[in-house]
Design a protein that fits this description.
The protein contains two helices and eight strands. By secondary structure, the chain is mainly beta. The radius of gyration is 13 Å and the shape is globular. The N terminus is likely disordered.
Length: 118
């Protein structure tokens, strides 16, 4: 089981990749719902809402999900928060998180995720 600890502005995040379908994002156990087929390790997870994740979801969109587009089910789900986890997003040994924002516009041009790296 691989565990990752990341800190940003005094807030720490733990990511767990254990070969199963669960990851921990900002203290929430999240279920994997999509994975790339290119062996990059990129996944989308569904997380229960927490104050930290709601803050990211309600933030300003500054990115898009990378190789996995959000499904209609993800776009219509208002009870959970979807996070695209991208290994090595900002360099070696970093994790990128792209949180699907509230009421996203998916048109191939507008940003619809709030991205940050650890």
């Amino acid at each position: 089981m691989k565990k990752y600890l990341f800190c940003l502005l005094g807030t720490c995040f733990i990511g767990v990749a254990n070969g199963a379908e669960n990851f921990t994002v900002m203290g929430q156990v999240c279920e994997q719902v999509a994975v790339t087929s290119d062996n990059s390790g990129e996944v989308i997870v569904r997380c229960p809402a927490s104050a930290e994740l709601l803050q990211k979801r309600d933030g300003v969109a500054n990115s898009m999900f990378l190789s996995i587009a959000p499904s209609d089910e993800m776009l219509q789900d208002t009870e959970n928060i979807y996070v695209n986890i991208v290994p090595n997003e900002c360099g070696p040994d970093t994790i990128g998180y792209r949180v699907l924002v509230k009421n996203p516009v998916i048109d191939g041009e507008q940003m619809y995720a709030n991205g940050f790296c650890e």
